[in-house]
Write a structure and sequence with these properties.
Layout lengths: L6 H26 L2 E3 L4 E3 L3 E3 L11 H7 L13 H12 L19 E7 L8 E6 L4 E7 L3 H7 L11 E7 L1 H8 L3 H22 L3 E2 L7 H8 L6 E9 L6
Antiparallel strand pairs: 1-2, 3-6, 4-5, 4-7, 5-6, 7-9, 8-9
Helix pairs in contact: 2-6, 3-6, 5-6
The structure holds flavin mononucleotide.
């Protein structure tokens, strides 16, 4: 026998309509969400993360950071803060002057470097791949998920990369510098990535963190993990995290 269309089924029917209307509203607002072009990727504005403002003074001198720096390949299983991530990215490629000059020098102030963050264990930042936007000191979400193991595999199976809290990935659009400096361009770009990576390594020391520059990786595989555009080349990886406590 057919069930009577009673009060309970009416309220269920109304609830279902409300759920469907809600789903439609979410779908519409997502499709209407504004997207921005980061210069490399098109991402919806909801996927851009504001970073805490970087500080421009600290308690560790340059001399002390230089003295204490060494390559750290063992990390405590502890998250690093978003503030630390913000500071590391700024140290590597942040804007320092109104005329858009950066923390690291660049031949002809052309800035061919593009900086990515592979986050795994960062407080208040979901695991994922992010693109650093120096002009606005923000992160654009490229991919969600933990890709540290994929990078470790692409880096000639250097398993220790998986234990870092996050990995800075320095890429470059060589053509930017080549357009002005021709055959000297690629050499300049490689010099620049050394400047930027060393900034990040010294900043890590000043924050009580540790890291290692990694040059052993398969270029195409690494670029694939990151989802890079065809004109971008990966040049250097810098895994960072909390070093083991001194014994
Ligand atoms: C261009 C370059 C590439 C490197 N690649 C790797 C690497 O793939 N894996 C690694 O564990 N260390 C790598 N290193 C770190 C060196 O092994 C390390 O700097 C060296 O052993 C000196 O030790 P220190 O950094 O503690 O002073 C690299 C260093 C440089 C400069």
């Amino acid at each position: 026998m057919r069930k009577a269309f009673n009060g309970r089924s009416v309220s269920r029917f109304i609830k279902l309509r409300l759920v469907l209307a809600g789903a439609l509203a979410i779908h519409t607002s997502l499709s209407a969400a504004r997207s921005i072009d980061t210069g490399r990727h098109r991402v919806i504005t909801a996927e851009v993360i504001m970073l805490p403002a970087p500080r421009t003074s600290g308690t560790v001198s340059v001399e002390e950071a230089l003295h204490k720096r060494y390559s750290v390949r063992e990390f405590r299983s502890a998250p690093i803060s978003l503030k630390d991530v913000s500071q590391l990215l700024w140290a590597a490629q942040g804007i320092t002057h109104e005329d858009r000059l950066r923390t690291a020098p660049s031949a002809g102030a052309i800035y061919p470097l593009e900086l990515y963050l592979v986050a795994g264990d960062v407080l208040n930042l979901p695991a994922g791949i992010y693109h650093y936007l120096p002009e606005r000191h923000r992160l654009a979400v490229i991919r969600r998920g933990d890709f540290r193991a994929d990078l470790a595999a692409a880096a000639m199976r250097q398993e220790w990369l998986k234990d870092s809290a996050a990995i800075l990935v320095f890429a470059a659009v060589e053509q930017r510098t080549k357009a002005k400096y021709d055959s000297r361009g690629p050499g300049y770009v490689r010099m620049e990535v050394g400047h930027a990576a060393q900034n990040a390594l010294l900043q890590a020391v000043a924050l009580g963190l540790g890291g290692t520059p990694v040059g052993a990786f398969e270029e195409e595989w690494t670029a694939q993990v990151l989802g890079l555009a065809a004109d971008e080349k990966v040049l250097y990886l810098v895994p960072v995290g909390k070093p083991p406590r001194a014994k």
